[in-house]
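@channel sequence for tomorrow's demo:
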Amino acid sequence: MPGMGPLGSITASDFYLYLGLDLAIIAGLAWIAHSWKLGMPTSKPNDPLARHLLSSRSRIFLRRGLGALWVVDGLLQAQPLLATRFGSLVLAPVVHSQPSWLAQVLALEIRLWQARPLDLAAGTVLVQIGIGVAILAGGDSRLGRLGLWFSIGWALAVWFGGEALGGLLVMGASEIFGAPGAALLYAMAAALLLAPTRLWVGGSIPRGIRRGVGVFVLLGALLQALPFEGFWSGSGLHSAFSRMARMPQPHWLGAPIFAMAKFGATHPTLENGLLTGVMAILGLGLVSGRATRSWTSLVLVWLAATWWLGQGLGGLGTGAATDPNLAPLVALLLVSAWIRTQAEPVRSEARSPGILDFRRKLALGGLAALVVGVVPAVVGLPLAAIEASSPSAAISSAHVVRRAESAKLCVTMPGQNTVLRQTCPEAGIRR
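structure tokens (generated this afternoon):
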């Protein structure tokens, strides 16, 4: 099959054909599993206990938001550029300036992608969509909880192998620009959803989320203020905002980002002081627990501003974004904590046996997608490792990394695997 050999290259048509065959297999596996009555809900809809366990509106909102984001991530991963050039467009730029041990791991990962592009590209799409569907349709059943466990494991793997620990080990890490990485928050959100529902209904977890986001913002202020991150110099903020401003976007969206870059070049101390101070004040406001609606509203405005000015709206218009970036995840957590936690009738989660049956089919399909996505990649890893260890593979991956570093073909911000259209001529993107 094209692209399966060492250093094989694939086309978008190869990838979509391969993905279509996988989807047919998934449909068959889901039908078989459904006929065996696997994955029934853990509690009966008419059980009074179920009426309590399935009733936290804030928890339902977070679960649906997390599941939807996973599906969006999977669809983004299916974009032609990512399907065919993930290693050179996403992984190679992350290697730059990393500690040697992490750079070696990422270089090996690039070689594995070169050796098995179809298996890994299609598998990534299927795993992420499968996790999202399992979470959305599974609810509080065994299927839904299994989807949450997969979410934690996959998110941590992406945080390490795709986001390089969110860029925390290189100079220039900042929450404004996406550190410590969106994948880490995916894992945290799934862990919160696995907590006992009584903690949600009682309000303990929503209060903890608000204070946790406050601490997160305070740590962001501390990170922004650290001298060795480079934001007190004229080049630090200017280069970071300039990268975002050069993304393909309407002029009215890019002009304020260019203004931030220009102001940071001429007045870096003032601009970074203001950014640090705003983050410190907002964090303290959330941690205080007073006037929660007012502070939550202000933090949401701040997150919207950083998503636009510092994270380029997730790079969604570049054709190479892998996720919406950090700010939407923090906003999802904060809004879920804002929603009232009073109990709701169980019919909001299970209106009829027919709907439960349909949701079970969807959840089974999601878990089948996980199996179909993971198994071929895992089975092929030993052979891929042998191929990746060949001298030609090492030379090719080193060439890819040097090309991304020296020519600056692709720019990847921490937690935001996005490619700048203006600086990736060899990626097939027009200037």
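heads up for whoever presents: Residues 192 and 405 are 38 Å apart (CA to CA).
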